[in-house]
XPP2 aminopeptidase (Donacobius atricapilla), 217 residues
Amino acid sequence: SPRSPSNGSSRTLSAREMYLFDTGGQYLDGTTDITRTVHWGEPTPLQKEAYTRVLMGSIDLSRLIFPSNTAGGTVESFACRALWDVGLNYGHGTGHGIGNFLSVHEWPVGFQSNNVPLEAGMFTSIEPGYYQDGEFGIRIEDVALVVEAQTEEPFLTFEVVSLVPYDRNLIDLSLLSPEQIRYLNSYYERIRVQVGPELQRQQLEEAYAWLQESTKP
């Protein structure tokens, strides 16, 4: 198939550029669709700022509290705002429903105008990005569960169920608000508590050390 790697299309990874990994699998208890972007060298100021603003959008939408039966299209702009602030944008949907033993992209959940309103129990991706043709691409994609918020009236929020650290090398902390940093720290704590013991159980010491380093406050 055209998607298979070949010696003709393969190229060597280097520490001088960004990499976008769109990963996923279908398991007995669910489907994963997780994208991370990394840079193993010295990112440019634009790369770092664009990545940080994509992350800010991801956090802002993930921690949003909104009324029940809100349409996804109503809240989508929260994922874009940090990019819009400096005149940047992305040209794809902010997220799609995720099936269990069905489609990775599953209708009718999502953030477009023709998707159904969000309800507790739905799984959606949250995936803002930024792309510069011929230069680099950034996307951060998490799977999120729509859950009831801890509010007096029945409101909703998201619980991110993907437990994968973001690339510290690309985050400009000076752009983040105290609330965004608090969100990141509590997310990292969840990753440590839920993934760390499993890596130890499997005796994956190198992966465990990487996880500890990648989830430092």
